[in-house]
Amino acid sequence: MLSTEPPTRYTLFMSTAPQKTFYVETFGCQMNVHDSEKVIGTLVHQGYSQVQTVEQADLILYNTCSIRDKAEQKVFHRLADYKKLLAQGKKFGVLGCVAQQEGEKIFERAPHVSLVCGSASYRNLPQMLIQIEAGKRATGLDDRETDECFETEFTARTNPHRGYITIIEGCDKFCAYCVVPFTRGKERSRTSESVLAEARQMVDRGYTEIQLLGQNVNSYKDPAGKRSFAELLTAVGEIPGIKRVRFTTSHPRDFGRDIVELCDHVHLPVQSGSTRVLDAMQRLYTREQYLERIASMKAAKRELSITTDVIVGFPGETEADFAETLSLLDEVGYDSIFTFKYSPRPNTPSLALDDAIPEQEKSRRLEVLMSKQKEIQIVRYRKYIGARAEVMVEGRNEARKQWIGRTSQNKTLNFSAPEGTEPKLGSYVPVSITASFPNSLLGEMVI
């Protein structure tokens, strides 16, 4: 699932005060966020201490996203803004998808950069740190064909209650618009035993919710042949102490009925409601096949929350194609959608397609799509009024005197608590839902 939230920043301090300091800024999806947690843990293990500002840091790292041009350009703007700090002896590194995509061309565009490293090479970070500390440039760009995953016990998790575990890296789908196969390499899965070992370790540290990650998480194939994705999902959920297991992102081609009864929320990207556009996108399924997956979810014994991703303005998308996407929203009744304007990306097959949609028309379609979905969400969220839900307590909004929680269906539920009651962060409490909004619910804690 792609994120449009602001860049994530992390804070982690050692009990001692090493001389070497670093700062990390992360752009993009949950995979990048979790990659940064592992990079931070690796750096701390190598004797670095994380600081909160660029000015305090000896080493400045940007973990990048290239899924859209806007995200990519943000990184180069950051590098240009802080070039002046090179005179203070600071070193700069570019990590992630932009690093893999642009490679050593980054050195030409930003000569003050010392490190360029794609995600498939993170396991070699300790050796690359030695190189840049010695005043040399270091690159990690040669591992797109690797069969190894980046596994480390030194993960600096940013949330003490809910954590990520990457179970599969890379992608073999080659959708026409997507850079991921070119930046993250081929699909490679961790053994189910290593995933379960990490999950047990997280439980020992107090985690109660785990989210399994992958570009196509349900394409998971256990190298040891012990468990399918559904069996791994079940096994993680059966670990004592685990209250919730989530997963993202699924690909409709690999989505099986065996997953349906194991979860309360499924994110299943559709991208378009038109079979003709889906074929041009090389998505490997039709509108009808996608709706078959939706039908299996709606036939489940438990009620599922269904969310999706949609791209508007793909080359050649006609008004009739766009109308099919709008009708799909009505037919499925999504609980929320992530919407994007098509953005041409390097190396992707869609660059060769004719009939580009003007930017103004893309913006119009995006606005129409979001307005349609808002109407749907108002109706869908309203039906929860009067129901009771268990929420994980995630925070406190002092201005509104409300607690912030999240349901098992991944819905935000803000609630009040009886006077004198103070729910503990990370705990699970029952809440009676009293009102709804297009993107959230409101309720009162039940004693």
Which descriptors apply to this entry?
single chain, 447 residues, alpha/beta, Rossmann fold, pyruvate-formate lyase- activating enzyme, OB fold (Dihydrolipoamide Acetyltransferase, E2P), 3 domains, 7-stranded mixed β-sheet, 5-stranded mixed barrel, 12 helices, 20 strands, 29% helix, 23% strand, disordered N terminus
Structural account:
This protein has helices spanning 30-45, 69-81, 97-102, 105-109, 125-133, 180-183, 192-204, 229-237, 275-280, 287-298, 319-332, 359-382, and strands at 8-9, 21-26, 49-50, 59-64, 91-96, 113-117, 138-140, 162-166, 168-169, 188-189, 209-213, 244-248, 265-267, 305-312, 336-341, 388-397, 402-407, 412-416, 428-436, 441-445. It has 447 residues and is α/β, with parallel strands linked by helices. The protein folds into 3 domains: 8-140, Rossmann fold (3-Layer(aba) Sandwich), CATH 3.40.50.12160; 162-382, pyruvate-formate lyase- activating enzyme, CATH 3.80.30; 388-445, Nucleic acid-binding proteins (OB fold (Dihydrolipoamide Acetyltransferase, E2P)), CATH 2.40.50.140. Strands 1, 2, 3, 4, 5, 6 and 7 form a 7-stranded mixed β-sheet that branches. Helix 11 (319-332) packs parallel to helix 12. It is globular and about 65 Å long. The two termini are 35 Å apart. The model is unreliable at 1-18 (pLDDT under 50).
**Total count of domains:** 3
Q: Total number of β-strand segments?
A: 20
**What proportion strand?**
15-25%
Question: Radius of gyration from the CA trace?
Answer: 22 Å
Sum up the overall morphology in one term. globular
User: What percent of residues adopt helix (DSSP H or I)?
Assistant: 25-40%
CATH superfamily of the largest domain: tm_1862 like domain
User: Alpha-carbon distance between the termini?
Assistant: 35 Å
CATH topology of the largest domain: pyruvate-formate lyase- activating enzyme
Poorly predicted segments: 1-18
* CATH architecture verdict of the largest domain: Alpha-Beta Horseshoe
Based on helices, strands and strand pairing, what is the structural class? alpha/beta
Q: Tally the helices: what do you get? A: 12
Can you give the mean pLDDT?
92
**What top-tier CATH class of the largest domain fits best?**
Alpha Beta
